[in-house]
Each structure stands twice: as structure tokens, then as C-alpha cells.
Amino acid sequence: MVEPLVRAALLEDLGRAGDLTTDAIVPADAIATMVLATRQPGVIAGLDVATLAFELIDPRTEITVVYPDGSSLSGGDVIATVRGPARALLTAERSALNFLCHLSGIATQTAAVVEAVRDHKAKIVCTRKTTPGLRALEKYAVRAGGGTNHRFGLDDAVLIKDNHIAIAGDIRTAVKRARTAAGHMVKIEVEVDTLDQLDMALAANVDAVLLDNMSVEQLTEAVAMVGGRAITEASGRVTAQTARAIAATGVDLISVGWITHSAPILDIGLDCR
């Protein structure tokens, strides 16, 4: 799954004529040693992807990892040393860094929210709000940051949302249809906006409930209503600042969309040494 993504990124950058600048300036036989280093504190994710970018340009490239994915680093720390044909290193540089900076940014933001709830049982989970084509990588980055994955796609769990309920007519009907169609291994979760809807979902014996955009007070009451009969997931307007109070309500999961769709990159550079 990963190699086609990296090949596509390299093709996008190299186009029809290759790296005009590097090929004109750097001798074909030149060898270089460079370091991947952080320029700000953060958590690393995507080293294997970055490594693949260099290796696909020239398999003679050698990468020595100092800090593996999941490591928390300060600004200026050397993540890895890259040695090989200089042309290959320069040509692959931007594609490698695009992946590494993006995925490390996701891991860094995930780690911040995970840290905010560390005194509670709640797990931080991502959503399907991902960059098209990069979902597997972005969900990997969430795990590198200490988070957990929600469903990967529409095909690995049933999540009955407000529009499904509106079209089905009510929660009971939607759950009954889902249970009839889904296999016995498939979990069923229902999104609810109110405590009345939660009561209906519990009556339908669902596996999990998504408590959408509820206040802390509502979440506390919802957890008490569920009483362990289903997995409780809080969602909506979650930040590193609000996550602690949400986790204190006793929910099992807190889903956060922005850690994948809006996380800023972690600034990482490739420099000659």
C-alpha cells in the first residue's frame, strides 16, 4: 500500500525530465552524507516512508536511524543519517520530507491530546477525516503518537449516523436493518445527540454509542445511563484543552478529526554534514 504512494509522489515531483537543478550541478559520482533533524520539538512518524523515497531513487542509499517512529524529540535532534549518491538524496529530499513532516505533525498533535487525558481511561481515536489516498499512513501516525484508530473505512464497522436514522425513520429500525445485513463479527455503533436518543439506542442493544457534541454535564449523565452496557465515544469540538474534562466524564473513547485533517507539519530538515 505504501510503495505506490511514494512512487506517485516522486513522479509528481520529477515529471517528464527529472531533477533539472541537481542533474546540472551535482556530479553523477558524488557521494554525500546528510542528516534528518528536527527544527522544533515533536513526535516522529513516517521514517520508513521517507526512507523508501530515497531508496526508490537509488537503492544504494543507506539510512541509519537514531530515533525510531514514536520518539519524542527536541528541536535540533538528529533523527537519522542518510548517505548515498548525492543526486539521489537531493532528488528525493522534498518527497521524503513531505511525508515525514506531515506524519510527524499528526503524531505530535495526537501525543498532545493523549497527554491531556493520561490520568483517565479514555483513549484518543482518529476518524475517517483523512487526506484522500493517505488514510493508512495518517492512521499509522496517530498510533505513533499514542492514539488509537477508529474504523478504517465504511467496510469494517457499522456506524449509524443522523442521516441514516432520518432516512430509516428511527433508531430502532436502523439498528434492526443493520443487524440483519451485517455479519456476526461486525460491531454496530449509533450516533446520538440527546439522552432520549441514547435511551433508544441502548434499548436496541447496540455495541457502542457515539455521543455527539454533548456538554460535559450531558456526557457524565450519558455514561451513567449506559452503565457499561456499551462502549461510549465522545465526539465534537475536542481540543487538547477540552479533552481532559471530557475524559473525566468516564467515556471510553474520544474521537478527534482534526489530528488527521488539520494537524500542522512538524518542521524537519535534511542538511549536509
Relevant terms:
single chain, 273 residues, alpha/beta, Aldehyde Oxidoreductase, domain 3, TIM Barrel, six-stranded parallel sheet, four-stranded antiparallel sheet, 11 helices, 12 strands, 43% helix, elongated, nicotinate-nucleotide diphosphorylase (carboxylating) activity
Topology:
Layout: H1 2-14, H2 20-25, E1 31-38, E2 42-43, H3 47-57, E3 62-65, E4 72-73, E5 78-85, H4 86-116, E6 123-125, H5 135-144, E7 158-160, H6 162-168, H7 171-181, E8 188-192, H8 195-203, E9 208-212, H9 216-226, E10 231-235, H10 243-247, E11 253-255, H11 258-261, E12 268-272
Helix pairs in contact: 1-3, 1-4, 3-4, 4-5, 8-9
InterPro entries: Aldolase_TIM (IPR013785), NadC (IPR004393), NadC/ModD (IPR027277), Nicotinate_pribotase-like_C (IPR036068), Quinolinate_PRibosylTase_N_sf (IPR037128), Quinolinate_PRibosylTrfase_C (IPR002638), Quinolinate_PRibosylTrfase_N (IPR022412)
Domain Quinolinate phosphoribosyl transferase C-terminal: 106-271
Organism: Mesorhizobium hungaricum
